[in-house]
Amino acid sequence: MGSVRCSSFVKINAAAATLLLSLHLLLSSPTAAIDDEETIISRFQAYLRINTSHPSPNYREAADFLVDQARSIGLWYQTVEFAEGKLRQYLEAVRRLKASRFQPLRSIYISFVPDEEIGGNDGAALFVNSTLFSNMNVGIALDEGMANPGETYRPFYGERSPWWLVINATGEPGHGSGLYDNSAAENLQKSLEAMRRFRASQFDLVKSGNRSEGEVVSVNLAFLKAGTPTPTGFVMNTQPSEALAGFDIRVPPTADPDSLDRRIEEEWAPTSRNMTSWFELKVPVRDKFGRPMATRTDGSDPWWTMLEEAVTQAGEKLGRPEIFPASTDARYFREQGVPAIGFSPMANTPILLHDHNEFLNRQVYLRGIDVYEKIIKAYASYAEHTSY
């Protein structure tokens, strides 16, 4: 790879803070000329310079910045709660539509909500269960996707639901030199071995190319806790009476959650081995109507068809629909029965989620605004009623 000038990249703040806004197009407000690329980039850079990193995030400055941007293009805004997010491309796309005097048939809302990285319970989860959201009568939701080092954009029609499982094993304590049946450590080890075998069977499907990472159940150890601590370490001649382990499990919408629940109860944490288990987090795999939380991606869904056509009209290519391997706020919309597509127009871009020096090429950023402009225009021009 040849050398790239630093000026051709725009740095990304991994914890950009904003606030939740409901934005409507004001068709009667004045419009300005379409801005040049340098002006667009400078706005993005100004936003990224706001310090929103913990432990002392400046949410107020970030919120004020977004409100000023909304006002500058004649948008209404409603402050609901301080939040986190980075949706500058949406605002720039709407800015262009306003400048072109586009007349939408549907309302366009852009939301900035908090805490997506830690579960979203105080952000999107509250929002979708609010009267404000129900009154919006949302037909389609676009949320974040993922970068792609290749030439195409990656669309996501579903995602894996996080199940954060804790297993607690108990047994009689004893001297470190003794051999005991059903000790806490032995009971937990049996579970670890069973879970490792299951994990390997799922991983083999990915390695063989039969499944993508988003299509299998992943099981990863998050923590182990056992033993009697001392100021310098642990007591080494005692077998503990209790041992705990935590696991990050991700369940795709194509999986059977009832079968996995039975596996946990009967094989991974059976009461017959003096074990108990609970979930620190258990996101549903099915929506409130009992259906798998997955959005249709065929000709029967007008929203998908419009997305395909808009990307093509922008001169870009859409890749094969995928299941997002991690989780996003889109799950909260799907849980309500609202179709949602994860989409980020970032082709020819390395995947650097939360990595050091996370960046986005400036031309990729600008191209993404072009693509969003076409998508939003297509969605806002669709007049027919849709139902799921």
TrEMBL record:
Peptidase M20 dimerisation domain: residues covered? 157-267
- Cellular component GO terms, alphabetical: cytoplasm
Which keywords does the record carry?
Cytoplasm, Metal-binding, Signal, Zinc
GO MF assignments: aminoacylase activity; metal ion binding
Query: Which InterPro entries does the record associate with it?
Result: Aminoacylase-1_M20A (IPR052083), N-acyl_aa_amidohydrolase (IPR010159), Peptidase_M20 (IPR002933), Peptidase_M20_dimer (IPR011650)
Residues bound to Zn(2+) 1: 144
Required cofactors, per record? Zn(2+)
Q: Where are the transmembrane segments?
A: none
Biological process GO terms, please? amino acid metabolic process
The answer on whether this UniProt entry bears the keyword Metal-binding reads: yes
Signal peptide positions are 1-33
What the entry lists under Pfam families is as follows: M20_dimer (PF07687), Peptidase_M20 (PF01546)
Where, by residue number, does Zn(2+) 2 bind?
117, 354
Q: Where is the active site?
A: 116
What does the record's cofactor remark say about binding? Binds 2 Zn(2+) ions per subunit.
- Superkingdom field: Eukaryota
PANTHER family xref list: AMINOACYLASE-1
Q: Which NCBIfam families match?
A: Ac-peptdase-euk (TIGR01880)
Name of the protein described by the UniProt record: Peptidase M20 dimerisation domain-containing protein
Instruction: Give the source species.
Output: Turnera subulata
